[in-house]
Design a protein that fits this description.
By secondary structure, this protein is an alpha/beta fold. The chain folds into 2 domains: 113 residues, 3-Layer(aba) Sandwich (Rossmann fold), CATH 3.40.50; 124 residues, Rossmann fold. It is built from 9 helices and 11 strands.
Length: 252
Amino acid sequence: MASKIKTILVSQPKPANDKSPYFDLAETHNLKIDFRPFIEVVGVPVKDFRKQRVDVMSHTAVIFTSRTAIDHFFRIVEELKFCIQESWKYFCMSESIALYLQKYIVYRKRKIFFGTGSFDTLLDIIKKHKEEKFLLPLSNVHKQDIPGELEKSNIRFSKAILYQTVSADLSDLKDVNYDMLVFFSPSGVASLLQNFPEFRQNSTCIAAFGPTTRQAVLDAGLTLNVEAPTPKSPSMTMAIEEFVKEANKRKR
């Protein structure tokens, strides 16, 4: 039986927007909700990148699925002292990602294409440029669907692992207890166990977003109390709210 929920730790950065539903959730149900990333992204060192034997300068186009990918692509280019080719074409998952390129290049002077947020829309554009040789910057932990779709469409491309997801140092949380922990990736669950190998769930409730995170929780031998998305609760905050209502009602 779940204890009354008063404190929640969300394993993500604190929302920059005051309109976040987490703040509404905290106010409505008198909860203390803290935010702390359990994972962090670090760049792959140049010496490790060289071991991948990826010839960046042999490519004519780059596919960006995130701002992080952009940051680490230009980091590697600078550290290897490559000259950014004006002829390079940039294909971005969304317009906001494309506009982020302004941090590194003169936007109006480059050939930049973007989708509407899904890879399917970007792939339709990429298919019109099959003559290009694409570079795909990725994290060491990435889904196989994007490389798979490129292969299926006979697109010439190379994967470049430019950054990696690692466990954050959570040692300052050693003596801090929460009624609920909220996870959004298997890496977050792994970070918990890496930081606290002796972790015992006891009365702590665990929430997980997405099927892979759910499975990571179960594989770790933990009890999953809250799951999202579901037909009834498509967002994590909605799922937490439903659970909190029930748990706190029983404990009155």
